[in-house]
């Protein structure tokens, strides 16, 4: 099967700090891939390197065969991105921003308008089309970011904490859309702190800890290797805690409250 | 300004320039200290009532102007400490106000005039034998009073600016007043000469003049000057009264400043944000439609240009430029042009003013080109996430600014023609070509400067704090433009070959276009290489 995402020895340093250390990762096309890790593990840095916001210190990354550094324009053409923090032009309205994104991907104006209308209605933003993004709530911004990421039919979709700040109804709608995208062959690379969502959506999972990959594979296989008990009843949370929780879990109390 | 630059420096070059500007500021401060000390010395040595009065009034009004007005004029426009950011800490409003006031005592603009006050006092007390105790007490209270009012004025400015629905009106009225007042002497003098003193007298009647003088008497500079004059002339009673008045002014400044901090400045954030959007919502809607018609350009370039034009038309300064342009043209055409000789630099009066106007109009967008990413915020990531090459992003942003500036130039030219009549064909052509040549040169430099020294800017504010290097580069390009473009217009006219000017300008523009195209790729590569620092700076 073709590879949608491939990294070889991907590494990024910030001064003396190594955020991502020699990451070797492969994601097959059409996979719903969950990329997990505790805060500061290197998830967002990895996504930023793969999407062109950060340059790798060494190593390489490929999106559908396009090198993210040497052939960045071709790589960006096939991907959509929802960054962790808002990357919107705040003095545009929602439809204006979607039109901007669509035009950057060379879409025809009529198609942009038709898809924008549908996306804004789906996300419940249709009544705020004259409002500037600066006046949007956090959840509204997230929903607009998701709309902008999918408007041009990307083949690979990077989602960095896409459900953060989104209400339950919108979250369910977004999940439906993401599942629909996967059925059409789109590869989704998702990071989320909500392990239940990852468990429901993703078929494959990788866990990164202190910049290094500590687990990678189909979710079912990872569950089987997670410890004692029935693999069906073992949750992703147990697996995650066993891999990255360490001795911190034992220190879950404040001394001055005892 | 140099102090602000040191605190917000982003590069080694900026630091070096900030240090140079600090040295220049120190030299200026020293020169001012010498000048005002000399005036003080002359006045006190003379010893007559008039001489002492004139000397003290000049010295203390100058210091008052430096301390209270300069921070606003030079675009600091905000208290030294951003009080809003301290709201998360358990400080009372009174503590926040005191923090703001304390920071004012060590602000750059005050460090500029403290030495002047010390030098003047040294000359007055040590050299000329002024009463030391009273002089030092009065000067100390005066200095505290100035710092308090400097802080209060900045708080008032911030408060007014936060009321964004009235901001543009307030700023516009303020600027028009400054322009008109600065032009009044020339206007009155000319009209008085033409129509006789009666007309002048009827325009500025005596009661108004005396009212202005009476008003000035209640301000701190006059109070301290009168007090020192009384002390020097041996009337201590009047001096003590002056001190009390100064203390009253100081208390008043504290009360007003604290009152605004307590009641207005730190409250209603959400409503202020809503007002800001309401002010910007309706404008810029036609930008996309306009640029969509330019099908000769690639889609990505049109997208970036439309975004840029929308931002410009939604920014306070962008709208302000469009509003102030007619005022500026009328002042240029009706006031400045009157003082020019008919044939200056080989051009008739209308031609000269038109060409000058067009060159000046081209400069309205300098800030947008020298600090092109100032308003992007976190949105700058959208550029780097998109599949457009960096050259196309740079080009698209340039196109947006060019369209905006062309609107400004057209507005100015049309109003000029309505007010002054049609200039000769060579001047009309020369003015328009000079406009294009000037913008192109600024664009070429700006494309390299913008990604290297980005300084975030509030789109709702008219003030701007570019990097120090950008300030120097701006001056350099402006001087270069004035010399080159001015020469290409004036020299042929002086030689009697006015047709040659437009021809030379066409050649200059052709050369600039070639240079622009050649430089587009390196400037795009520079943008790409500065991606991470640009995101980091603008997202902060």
Layout of helices and strands:
The complex is a heterodimer of chains A (258) and B (540).
Chain A lengths: L2 E12 L2 E12 L3 E5 L6 H9 L6 E6 L2 E2 L4 H6 L1 E4 L11 H11 L4 H14 L15 H13 L5 E5 L7 H16 L3 E5 L3 H7 L2 E6 L2 E7 H6 L11 H9 L14
Parallel strand pairs in A: 3-8, 3-9, 6-7, 7-8
Antiparallel strand pairs in A: 1-2, 1-4, 4-5, 9-10
Helix pairs in contact in A: 3-4, 3-5
Chain B lengths: L1 H6 L4 H35 L2 H25 L19 H13 L2 H20 L4 H31 L1 H32 L1 H7 L2 H12 L2 H13 L3 H30 L3 H13 L4 H7 L6 H16 L1 H21 L6 E2 L2 E2 H14 L3 H5 L9 H6 L4 H31 L4 H28 L15 H27 L5 H30 L1 H9 L1
Antiparallel strand pairs in B: 1-2
Describe it for me?
The complex is a heterodimer of chains A (258) and B (540). Chain A is an alpha/beta fold and 258 residues long. Chain A has 9 helices and 10 strands. In chain A, the strands form 2 sheets. Chain A has a 6-stranded mixed sheet with strand order 6-7-8-3-9-10, with helices on both faces. The longest helix of chain A is centred in the last third of the chain and has 16 residues, at 168-183. Chain A starts with a strand and ends in a 14-residue tail after the last helix. The mean pLDDT of chain A is 89. Chain B folds into 2 domains: 2-278, no CATH class; 300-365 and 376-447 and 468-529, no CATH class. Helices cover 80% and strands 1% of the residues of chain B. In chain B, a hairpin with a 2-residue loop joins strand 1 (343-344) and strand 2. The interface between A and B is large, with 33 and 38 residues.
């Amino acid at each position: 099967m073709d590879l949608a995402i491939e990294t070889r020895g991907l590494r990024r340093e910030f001064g003396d700090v190594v955020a991502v250390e020699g990451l070797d990762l492969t994601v097959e096309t059409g996979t719903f891939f969950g990329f997990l890790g505790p805060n500061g593990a290197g998830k967002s840095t990895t996504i930023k390197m793969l999407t062109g916001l950060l340059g790798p210190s060494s190593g390489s990354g490929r999106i559908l065969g396009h090198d993210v550094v040497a052939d960045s324009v071709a790589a960006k053409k096939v991907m959509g991105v929802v960054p962790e923090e808002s990357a919107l032009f705040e003095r545009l309205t929602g439809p204006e921003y979607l039109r901007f994104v669509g035009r950057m991907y060379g879409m025809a104006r009529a198609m942009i308008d038709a898809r924008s209308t549908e996306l804004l209605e789906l996300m419940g933003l249709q009544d705020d089309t004259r409002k500037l993004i600066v006046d949007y709530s956090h959840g509204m911004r997230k929903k607009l970011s998701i709309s902008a990421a999918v408007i041009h039919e990307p083949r690979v979709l990077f989602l960095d904490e896409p459900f953060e700040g989104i209400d339950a109804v919108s979250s369910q709608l977004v999940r439906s859309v993401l599942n629909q995208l996967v059925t059409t062959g789109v590869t989704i690379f998702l990071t989320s702190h909500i392990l239940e969502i990852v468990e429901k959506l993703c078929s494959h999972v990788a866990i990164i800890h202190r910049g290094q990959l500590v687990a990678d594979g189909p979710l079912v296989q990872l569950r089987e290797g997670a410890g004692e008990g029935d693999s069906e009843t073992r949750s992703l949370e147990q697996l995650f805690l066993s891999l990255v929780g360490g001795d911190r879990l034992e220190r879950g109390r404040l001394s001055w409250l005892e | 300004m140099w102090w602000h630059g040191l605190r917000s420096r982003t590069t080694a070059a900026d630091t070096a320039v900030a240090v140079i500007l600090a040295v220049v500021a120190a030299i200026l401060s020293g020169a001012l200290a010498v000048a005002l000390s000399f005036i003080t010395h002359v006045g006190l040595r003379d010893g007559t009532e008039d001489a002492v009065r004139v000397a003290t009034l000049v010295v203390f009004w100058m210091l008052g102007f430096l301390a209270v007005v300069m921070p606003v004029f030079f675009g600091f426009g905000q208290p030294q400490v951003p009080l809003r950011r301290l709201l998360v800490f358990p400080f009372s409003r009174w503590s926040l106000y005191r923090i703001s006031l304390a920071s004012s005592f060590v602000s750059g603009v005050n460090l500029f005039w403290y030495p002047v006050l010390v030098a003047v006092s040294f000359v007055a007390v040590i050299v000329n034998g002024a009463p030391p105790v009273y002089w030092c007490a009065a000067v100390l209270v005066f200095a505290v009073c100035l710092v308090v009012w400097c802080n209060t004025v900045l708080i008032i400015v911030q408060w007014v600016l936060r009321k964004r629905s009235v901001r543009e009106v307030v700023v516009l009225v303020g600027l028009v007043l400054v322009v008109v007042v600065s032009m009044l002497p020339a206007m009155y003098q000319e009209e008085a000469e033409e129509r006789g003193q009666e007309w002048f007298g009827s325009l500025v009647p005596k009661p108004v003049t005396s009212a202005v003088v009476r008003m000035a008497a209640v301000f701190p500079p006059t109070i301290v000057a009168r007090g020192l004059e009384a002390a020097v002339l041996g009337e201590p009673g009047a001096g003590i009264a002056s001190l009390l008045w100064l203390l009253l002014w100081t208390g008043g400044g504290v009360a007003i400043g604290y009152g605004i901090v307590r009641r207005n400045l730190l409250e209603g954030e959400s409503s202020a944000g809503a007002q800001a959007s309401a002010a910007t919502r309706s404008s810029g809607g036609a930008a996309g439609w306009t640029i969509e018609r330019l099908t000769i350009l690639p889609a990505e370039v049109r997208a970036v240009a439309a975004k840029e034009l929308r931002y410009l038309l939604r920014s306070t300064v962008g709208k302000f430029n469009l509003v102030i342009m007619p005022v500026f043209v009328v002042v240029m055409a009706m006031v400045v042009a009157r003082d020019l000789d008919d044939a200056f630099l080989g051009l008739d009066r209308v031609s000269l003013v038109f060409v000058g106007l067009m060159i000046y109009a081209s400069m309205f967008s300098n800030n947008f080109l020298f600090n092109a990413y100032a308003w992007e915020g976190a949105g700058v990531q959208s550029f780097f996430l998109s599949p457009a090459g960096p050259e196309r992003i740079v080009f698209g942003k340039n196109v947006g600014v060019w369209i905006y500036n062309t609107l400004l130039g057209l507005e100015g030219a049309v109003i000029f023609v309505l007010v002054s009549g049609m200039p000769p064909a060579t001047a009309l052509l020369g003015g328009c070509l000079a406009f294009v040549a000037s913008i192109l040169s600024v664009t070429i430099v700006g494309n390299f400067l913008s990604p290297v020294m980005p300084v975030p800017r509030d789109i709702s504010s008219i003030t701007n704090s570019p990097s120090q290097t950008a300030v120097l580069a701006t001056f350099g390009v402006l001087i270069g433009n004035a010399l080159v473009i001015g020469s290409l217009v004036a020299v042929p006219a002086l030689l009697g070959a006015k047709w040659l000017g437009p021809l030379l300008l066409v050649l200059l523009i052709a050369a600039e276009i070639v240079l622009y195209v050649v430089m587009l790729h390196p400037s795009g590569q520079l943008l790409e290489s500065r991606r991470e620092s640009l995101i980091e700076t603008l997202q902060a």
